[in-house]
Design goal:
Blueprint: E1 5-10, E2 15-22, E3 25-33, H1 35-38, H2 46-68, E4 77-83, H3 87-104, E5 108-112, H4 113-119, H5 121-125, E6 132-137, E7 142-147, E8 155-159, H6 165-175, H7 183-190, H8 217-232, H9 239-265, E9 269-273, H10 280-293, E10 296-298, H11 302-305, H12 309-321
Parallel strand pairs: 1-4, 4-5, 6-9, 9-10
Antiparallel strand pairs: 1-2, 2-3, 6-7, 7-8
The protein binds 5'-O-[(R)-(carboxyoxy)(hydroxy)phosphoryl]adenosine and zinc ion.
Length: 342
């Protein structure tokens, strides 16, 4: 295997991720998560995440170098998530990456978090297709993107107008008394339930609604009302049925819009990423609908779907291979980095 040796730094949310790749080959993917520190708050607390990044970043970089069996002096470039994400959390990664770049004289590439979620699939399934639709669903984002050359940028087709998909899973889990983060718990509970038990609403799915935007807050409220009504009348709430029906409403909308985007853009590859891509029903329904629409589905393994440093290194390596210029060292962490800038 050959290709540029790149270290990637990801600190946009609650994972301190350091990855090292050589071209398309993954050499190290070390993640230190502060998720347990946020659990009692039911969501990520920005200040807690920033402090955890500060404590974890140097040891995690060292672990990644040890795992890959390389030294800083061997690297060809460093890449870091420039945004979007939590400002204070991003700042820790950007400052660390700049310090490394200055100390080593290596080129530094500031990259877009969503572009990195797309690029990571190269490490698992090989070269990215010439064009694909990407559905990125996590606790922080829910986006449909049109991707051609990911080193040049991605084109947003739509995104959530309120809650992110993962956020909806986390909030519904909380009202069902399940722990944070709720996605995996809903996924598990849903296996014991009937997805057709309750007809929860499919947000923004009417003929006049934005075809590629998502809305999950109405669904979350509908679940809350349904549970409250049962509790008021003293009826037992079947957690499995609620979980399965809620999950079906989310993944039905996600997959329907993703397949429609492929059709309308004339693209025959769909790439799904982000923490919610670990959802078993999302994977199954996407596979089913892609197969009947003649679309090739690519979903990286769950560890590469959640935030990690390997994805940043993967996009950095693609940029180096494509001859894209390194970033000037005066760029800042940008919590709302526009999508076209990768
Ligand atoms: O990508 P990620 O680790 O972090 C960011 O939010 O950026 O995604 C975490 C989100 C959480 O909301 C979590 O509940 C959700 O992904 N998640 C899942 C599953 N596993 C994780 N949602 C549904 N089903 C799952 N199996
Ligand atoms: Zn992410």
């Amino acid at each position: 295997m050959s290709g540029p040796l790149v270290l990637g730094v990801e600190t946009s949310c609650d994972e301190t991720g350091i990855g090292i790749v050589r071209g398309a080959e993954l050499l190290a993917d070390e993640v230190a998560s502060s998720v347990d520190e946020h659990a009692r708050f039911g969501g990520v607390v920005p200040e807690v995440a920033s402090r955890a990044h500060l404590e974890a970043i140097v040891p995690t970089i060292q672990r990644a170098l040890d795992t890959a069996g390389v030294r800083l002096a061997d690297l060809d470039a460093i890449a870091v998530t420039e945004g979007p994400g939590l400002a204070g959390a991003l700042l820790v990664g950007v400052a660390a990456a700049k310090a490394l770049a200055l100390a080593t004289g290596l080129p530094l590439h500031g990259v877009h978090h969503l572009g990195a979620h797309v690029a990571v699939d190269r490490l698992e399934h090989g070269d990215l297709p010439d064009a694909c639709i990407s559905l990125l669903v996590s606790g922080g984002h829910s986006s449909l993107l049109l991707v051609a050359d990911v080193t040049l940028g991605v084109t947003p087709l739509g995104s959530t107008v309120d809650d992110a998909a993962g956020e909806a899973f986390d909030k519904v889990a909380r009202l069902l008394g399940l722990p944070f983060p709720g996605g995996p718990h809903i996924d598990r509970a849903a296996r014991e339930g009937d997805p057709a038990a309750i007809a929860f609403p499919r947000g923004l799915s009417g003929p006049r609604d934005a075809a590629f935007d998502f809305s999950f807050s109405g669904l979350k409220t509908a679940v809350a009302r349904w549970v409250e009504a049962r509790q008021r009348s003293g009826e037992a709430v079947d957690v499995g049925d609620v979980a399965a029906s809620f999950q079906e409403a989310v993944v039905d909308v996600l997959t329907a819009k993703a397949v429609r985007a492929c059709r309308e853009q004339g693209v025959d590859h769909l790439l799904i990423g982000g923490g919610v891509a670990a959802n078993s029903r999302l994977r199954a329904l996407a596979a089913e609908r892609c197969a009947s629409a003649g679309i090739r589905l690519r979903v990286p393994r769950p560890g590469l779907c959640t935030d990690n440093g390997a994805m940043v290194a993967a996009l950095g390596a693609l940029r180096v291979e494509a001859g894209r210029p390194a970033s000037a060292l005066d760029f800042g962490a940008d919590s709302s980095l526009p999508l076209e800038v990768v």
